[in-house]
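pls ignore typos typing on phone
pyridoxal-5'-phosphate + seq
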Amino acid sequence: MDEGLMKTYARADEVFVDGRGAVLHDQDGREFLDLLAGIAVSALGHAHPALGEALRDQLGKVVHLSNLFRHPYTENVAQRLCRHTDMAAAFFTNSGTEAVEAALKLARKAMHVRGTPERTSFAALEGGFHGRSLGALSLTWNEKYRQPFRPLQPVTWVPPEDTAALRRVLEQERPAALVLEPIQGEGGIRELSGDFLRAARELCTAFGTLLVHDEIQCGCGRTGRFLAAQHHGVVPDVVTLAKPIAAGLPMGAMLCSAALADTFQKGEHGSTFAGGPLVCRAATVFLDEIDRGLLDQVAARGAELRSGLERLRHELPIVREVRGRGLMLGLRLWHSADAVQKALHRSGVLVNCTAGDVLRIVPPYVITSAQVQDALATLRAVLATFPNDPKEVH
Ligand SMILES: Cc1ncc(COP(=O)(O)O)c(C=O)c1O
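k done
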């Protein structure tokens, strides 16, 4: 098993060979309903016909150029992302982590430009996840990920929803940036309130700290709006995106406001591969689908899934809470979700487990109504096989 690979992941045994929409097939022809979408990535599902056609066409034209040359799709995607996010300029990356890293460097440079180069520290929220490079890892809360790699960058932690603590940290420490996920993904699908997001916006403005929204998992339409913070009318200074942005190809972006758009000068940041013709062509297919109304489907399927999950919460005492928005949902149990996740897998439904007790449900945006009902039926059947007597599960 896993020969030749480092042991960084616990991999399932199946070998997946193809799929269609929200369905995956393994090499024995077994069918799985994919409610994980490659960890919130494959928004258009598997084998999307328009994506395949566009990529085949692009492969016959040009795949890579470097950022030393212009390409129409790169500029097209940058402008469309700026429009969708109310930002002014984009820096492309190959992953979410790199987008966060770019945001941290942008914040440091912005402090130099403002004449406050001593403002080098960062603030982040307890429970947050922002990636695993040394910079992004510094902002990631989980001690298991951090411990073997110290020393990390200095970060001050703020408990989610604690506006007084946030004010204290920003006032006393004057960090360069506050980085937060409007809905924490790895932290267990925990949504921040509109009140807290608005307070963070006001406090960052008051104390000259850049507000960075990491929407790598909750952005790009997953909640039914392009950005999760748009549900609350909050516009940050910087947004990071990745995961579904190129419909499964590796791509990320760091976008910033007009005031920050000239912060990086030539040579101050870069990437050989990022924003190349092939990934940007894929991103145009994703953005075209959004322009055709894909997010209405996210909202509709999300509502169906959520009301089904709420029914399960009423019926089955093992279910503690339904969390999230749109197609970014979490089912929090009264005990570890690990065994339930494995049982669902054996029953042909793929989800994963975050924060120990939460089943994370982040299906492709193209999941059908019938597939949502199938998923709910399997969830009910599997959860019913676990202890549901409140005395046993609490
Ligand atoms: C909110 C958030 N930020 C950053 C990352 C890191 O992204 P990547 O794995 O593409 O480097 C993730 C990945 O799960 C994420 O969920």
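Residues 95-97, 100, 129-131, 181, 185-186, 214, 216-217, 242 surround pyridoxal-5'-phosphate (CB under 6 Å). The two ends are 37 Å apart (CA to CA). more later
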